[in-house]
Amino acid sequence: MITIRRAPTLGSAHSDTPMLRCHFAFADYQDPAYTHDGRLRVLNLGTLKSAQAYHLGPEANVDILTWVSAGNLTSNVDGFEQEEIGTRGLHLFSTGTGYKGLEWRAGPDGAAFIQFWFMADVEGVSPAQETRASFPQLEDGGFRILASGFPEDDPEEESQITDGAPVALTARARLLHAAIPAAEGAAYSTTPGRDLYLLVVSGTVTINGNVLRCDDSAAITDQQDMVVIAQEKAELLLADVAAK
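The structure corresponding to this sequence follows.
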């Protein structure tokens, strides 16, 4: 089954500095019809002005993935090195046993970001941080794994990341990205007991006859195979999570 969520129906939350557009209940946006999708707890879209910061905390047992759609961010977390995240770069903070505060600050040109929260399946671990730059040379029109809680998705772990390997989640989940040329398609298959949540970052696509545009989304349940066709050049993010 595919359930479409249109961009104009997203909620708005006043959380810290920016106004967030929310796919699920968050901060002062509460809607019993949209609380989560499987183990995907949060999907927020935010925009920051030059040097503006966004703060979170305290949080525990959740993987917070921040993907920069425009501009650049700097992460500031006590006890961790600052990390610079450029356009289409990804920042992961696994809160583990608990962390009291996180900050992301926009660069001089501001920033736009998309943030996913996956509920952890491995508990009792220390907080951890990872960052990946974009790897446009690896984009082939299909879905590429950006983050994964499945060791088999990155069998050759290395201390120096040079190949666009996914960041490691404490959730048994995946975050994937696709840049699809116009008139071409991308397919993805999951396993039973999983939910898929597709977000259109830019462009126009069709899925099962439904037309989706920028910031529209599709929740896909009880269906293992998915094919997306780009009506125009499109960029997508896809979450693959346990249904329960």
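The mean pLDDT is 94.
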